[in-house]
What does this fold into?
Amino acid sequence: MAERPPIVLFVVVVVAVVGFIEIMNGLGWMGIGPFEPGLSKPTDLGKEFWDLLILAGGLMLIIIGLISIVIAILAYRGSSFARTILIIVLLLGVVGSLLSLWSTVAIVELVLCLVLLYILFRPDVKQYFGS
It folds into this structure.
């Protein structure tokens, strides 16, 4: 395996921080869901349905965050699988941000995804991941 280029550490840190933010976001969703009275959206479906939906959304964000952290660890170790997953996720991020360009957050996401994709396709980074 080739020596780890320093720029790979940047990618790993960004992915790990995003994973941590997703976990915190999921915990926040779960906190305002069924455990906080008055924040549910009662409709014909009932309060319990919305509480369950918010709880499931929070759990999904926590799972995505944990997967992001695992991918960051694998990328740090030079796994070609991690690089492939990162490329797929970043391409989906580019498409998603292009579909919502009216948002400032989407523009920042687009720039970040494109920078990370550029890094992942640099020759020294490709060599590190064994691609």
User: Anything to note?
Assistant: The chain has one domain: 6-128. The mean pLDDT is 84.
